[in-house]
C-alpha cells in the first residue's frame, strides 16, 4: 500500500504535465522556437562557431556553409559582439527565417582571412537538447539504442516472472514500458528528422515534446514506486527529472545543455538496471543473453559474408547486369552450405559453445526423458535425487514420502504449484510454522509429486552452492515433477498388477496342493483299511507313519519349496507304508548326494511321482517290484529321478492323471518353463526325470 500511495502523486503530476503541454502555446516545451543549430562561443577574436550540428545543410557548396572555427562579424549587416546576442536572435526568430551571416574564415592554403556572406535558414529548436553539438546528436541515438536493447532483454528475462504476479510487478512493468517507449520515440525522432532533412517543419516535434516529457515522468514515478523515496533513489532518478527542468528553464547560450542532455540520456539506463537487478538473477539471464549474442554474431557474420561476396562479384564482373542476382544466389548458397555443415556436426560445435550450466540442463532434460522407462519407484527416487544434485550444484536434495509432510503436500497439490523461499516467483505461501521448519531444515524450494491415488513424494531442495534458483530452474523442476507423477502412477499400476498376479499365482498353487494332498491321503487310508483285518500290527505301524505324514503335511502345506532331505523323508515314510502293504514284493532304494540334499524342491512333487510308481507300476505286476529314487546336482540343475519296473507309462496320457497334471502346472507357474519334467517308458518300466534350477535351501 505504501508503494501504491507513492504512485498517486506522480499520476497527478503527469496529468498536470499533459495540461501544460496542451495549453502552453509557444513555450520552450512546445518545440516551435527557432535555432540556427550552431554553437557560438565568445573568444578574444570575437564570436566563433564552436560546433555545427550534423543536420545543418545551408548550401551544397562547402564554402557557403558555416563551419567550426568561423568568426561571426555581422548578422543582417549588424555587428555582433557576444554569443548570447546570436543565441537570442536565432531563438526569437520563427522557423524558416533567413539570416545573412557575415563570417571570416582562415584560408588554410594562404593563411589569409577570407570574408564570406552565408545565408542561414533557421529551423525549429529540438526538444530536450542536441541543437548544436555534432557529437551528442549521434551519441544520443546510440544511447537510446542501447537502452532500448537493454530494456527489451530485461523484458524477455522477466516476462515469465511477471506473469506469475502481474500486480506485484506493476511498477517494474511501467518502468520497462516507459524505457522502451522513451528509447523508441527518440530513435523515431532521430531517423525521421535525419531522413526528412527539413528543419522548418515542427509537426512531429509537437507530438514528441509532450509525449517524451510524459514518459520521463512515468519512468521516474515507476522507479520511485518500485524502489521507494530516498537519497540514493532520488540521485538515480535525476536522469529522468533533469531533462524536464533543463527543457523548461531559460538557459544562457554558454550553458552546456547538450552535454547535460547527453549525460542524462546515457544514464537513463541506470534506473532500469537498478530496479530490475534483484529480479534479473531469478530470470533466465544466461539463456536470453546467450541466444541474443548468438543471433547478433550470426547477423554480423551474415553482413560480413554479404559484403565479401559483393566485393568479390564486383571485382570479377564489374559491369555485369546479373551481378545483383549472382550476389544474392551466392550468398544464399554459402549460407545454406554453412547451415548444412553445422547441422551435420552439431554435436561437435555444441561441445565448444555450450556452457557448463547448459550442459547440466541438457543432462537433466535427457534424464527426464528417460524417466518413463523406470519400473521401480525406489530406484527412480534415488536417481532423481542424484541427478537434481548434479544439476543444481546442491548437496541437500530430499524426497520424503508425502505422508511425512502431509500438510505441505496437500497445500501444494491443491494450488497445483510449488513453494520457494524467494517470494519473487513463489506462487504458494506456507503457514509461518512450516516456513520456520523449511528454514531450519535448509530447504528453499519444494515441489509436490502426487501421482493420483498412489503414494506421493515431496521434492525438497536446499540452497545452491553458487547463485540462486531462477525461472529456468523452476521450469525444469516442474517438468521433472510432472514426469515423475506420470511415471509413479504407471509404476503403482504395475505394482498392483504384480500383486494381483502374485495373489492369483499363490491361489493356483494352493488349489493344486489341495488336489494333491487329499489324493495322497485318500490312497494311504485305503492301504491302512486293507491291512486292518489281515495284519492289524502292520496297520498300527502304518497309522503311526500316517500321523507323521499328517504332521508334515500340516507344517509344510503353506510352503512352495522344501529341502530335498525333508521331501525324501516324506517319500521314505510313504513307501514304508506301501512296503507294509506289499511286503517282500516291494523293494525301495533311495540315493541322494550330500550337495543335492541341501537343494530346494517343490513340496510334495517327488512324493507324487513315488505314489504314481506304486499305483500304476508296482501294483500292476506280479513279480517283485522295484522303486529307485536318486538325486544329483549336474549342469546347474538338481536332477531327481524316480524309476519303477512296472508295465510302463503311456506318455500320451500323462495329463489325464490328476497328480502328474498338477505337477506340470506347478512347474509352469513357478518357473514359466515346460521342459523341466520328462516321462519315459523304458520298456522295463517308467522313468520320471525332474530338473530343478539350483537355488539354496529355503528357510523353514
What does this entry look like structurally?
With 700 residues, the protein is an alpha+beta fold. It is built from 22 helices and 19 strands. It folds into five domains: 2-19 and 131-280; 35-124, PDZ domain (Pdz3 Domain, Roll); 285-353; 357-495, GAF domain (Beta-Lactamase), CATH 3.30.450.40; 535-693, 2-Layer Sandwich (Heat Shock Protein 90). Strands 2, 3, 4, 5, 6 and 7 form a six-stranded antiparallel sheet that branches. Strands 14-16-17-19-18 form a five-stranded mixed sheet. A hairpin with a 2-residue loop joins β4 and β5. The longest helix is centred in the C-terminal third of the chain and has 64 residues, at 471-534. Residues 1-5, 22-31, 58-62 and 696-700 have low confidence and may be disordered.
Strands, helices and their partners?
Layout: H1 2-23, E1 34-35, E2 38-42, E3 47-52, E4 71-75, E5 78-79, H2 83-92, E6 98-106, E7 113-121, E8 123-124, H3 136-164, H4 170-196, H5 203-227, H6 231-236, H7 238-248, H8 257-267, H9 269-280, H10 285-316, H11 323-344, H12 346-353, H13 356-370, H14 377-392, E9 397-398, H15 406-415, E10 418-420, H16 432-441, E11 443-449, E12 457-462, H17 471-534, H18 536-556, E13 561-563, H19 564-582, E14 586-592, H20 594-597, E15 600-602, H21 605-616, E16 625-634, E17 637-644, H22 658-671, E18 677-681, E19 686-693
Parallel strand pairs: 14-16
Antiparallel strand pairs: 1-8, 2-3, 3-4, 4-5, 4-6, 6-7, 9-12, 10-11, 11-12, 13-15, 16-17, 17-19, 18-19
Helix pairs in contact: 1-5, 3-4, 3-8, 3-9, 3-10, 4-5, 4-9, 5-7, 7-8, 10-11, 13-14, 13-17, 17-18, 17-19, 17-22, 18-19, 19-21
